[in-house]
Amino acid sequence: MVDYELLRINYFQNDYPCPYTLKNGGDILIYPILVKDYSLYEYYKQIMELDKNSINDIEIIQMSYLDFLVKIVFTQNKEESSKLYGMLSILLKEENILIVEKDKKYHIVITDDEDNIKYIIKSKELEEIYKISCYQNDINYEDIRYSEDVKQAINDYYTLKYKNSHSPTLEEMKAFVTSKIGVLMKDLNEMTYRNFFMVYESALGSEMYIGQKIIQASEKYKVDDFKHPLFTEKKNKLDEVFSTDAEQFTNKINNING
Hints:
10% strand; 3-stranded antiparallel β-sheet; mainly alpha; 50% helix; 5 strands
C-alpha cells in the first residue's frame, strides 16, 4: 500500500520527483506538474476519472482500468487515447509510450530511442501512478468516491454558495500572485503547481484576513473574531456541506429543488 503521508514528507513538500517501483523491475519517477503545464494536465487526466464501475455491465466492471480504456473508451473515440499518452508524458517525462497486449491484458510499455524496453506498467500501477500525481499536485485532493446522491448534494451546495461569485481562471490566479509577490511570469511558470497554489491561497487569505480585521475594528459592525487562514483548520467537502452551519444551505437547496 502506498504511504501518501510519507511521500508528502519526503517528496511532495520539497518539489522532488517521486520514485515508484514497478513490479516488472525498475523505479520510474513521477514529476510534479509545473504551472505552465497544469492546464494541459487537467485536460489529460480526465481520461483517468471515468467511473467504469458505474456502468451497468458486469464484464466492464470486472475489467482492469486499462483494459476498459482500450476495449471500450478508445474503440468509441480513438482521439481519447491522446489524453492518456499526454498525461503520462507530462508526469513521467517520457516520450516513447506504447500500449501493448500481453497474456490477454494491456500494459503500458516505455522504450528508449532505440526501442529497448525501459519500463512495463501494469493497469493497477497506472492507477497508482495517477493517484500519486493527484496527491502530489493538489494539496486539497480527497480520494473519496461519493454516491450519486452525495455528489448531487455537494454540487447543489457549492452552486448555491458561489451563485454570484466568479471562479478565477489559472491566468487570473497567476496575475494575482505576480502582483502580490513580484515574481516574473517566466519564473512563476517554472514553479510547481502545488507550490504556486499554496502561495496563491496564502496571499489571498492574508488579504481577506486584513479586510475582515478592519471591519471587525469598526464600531459600526459586530462580527465574530477571525483566525488567520494559516491557523484555520481546513474542512473537507463532506464536513462543509453537512455541518450544522450548512443547514441553511440545505434548506435553500430543498426549496429550490422542491
